[in-house]
Amino acid sequence: MENADVTERLKNIVASMKRGVFFGGAGVSTESGIPDFRSEDGLYRMKYKYPPERMLSHSFFLSHTEEFFEFYRDKMLYLDARPNAAHVKLAEWEKEGRLAAVVTQNIDGLHRKAGSRNVLELHGSVLRNHCMDCGRSYPVDYVASATGVPRCECGGIVKPDVVLYEEPLDDDVLEAAVDAIRSADTLIVGGTSLNVYPAAGLVDFFRGDELVVINKGLPARAVAGALFVDGKIGETLSKL
Length: 240
Known about the structure:
This protein is α/β, with parallel strands linked by helices. It has nine helices and nine strands. The strands form two sheets. A six-stranded parallel sheet has the order 3-2-1-7-8-9, with helices on both faces. Strands 5-4-6 form a three-stranded antiparallel sheet. Helix 6 links the parallel strand 2 and strand 3. The protein is elongated, with a radius of gyration of 18 Å.
């Protein structure tokens, strides 16, 4: 299918969308200057003392807490990043009543910054942080500006509310994501290789009419019946 035909079909799908859901991954935020994980320039291709997957694990957080925060501040916090065309377009669709929810694997908080309200953050958000002892909440700036391990006034460690390797997804968020996708008439999957489970398996709950996958390169798993668009998510959505 020619690019012009694909764009026209996408426009028709969006025009008829009444209860859409967007399911996105790291590729949504690359156009905001935040690197992804698995591409040639991604985080997992860079050389570190330990593999990034280990440094972002629960066990590493407990055993090498100071090194965890050094890596976290350096490679996971992009506080100057701004929403791109994809974030903005999705917020517009929600405001128009076309989009019921955004389900995201990203932790950068850019969907909310763009104005989206019903955002289901499967892996948490860097914008939320809490004391592991007393539960007190702290803004991201507190963690970003701390030296070494950020500490609460009570002495406890201030941990980011992000899901690390070896940690389970939040049951309530996961259930809400399943419900949203299951009840959607249109599912747009964007900026994800569909390589990370259990998140990638959420696509299987879709029972609606139109399924679209927008990504740079084919995803890791085939999605039966989907309209596939090979391209950047922001550039693609800005044409709609």
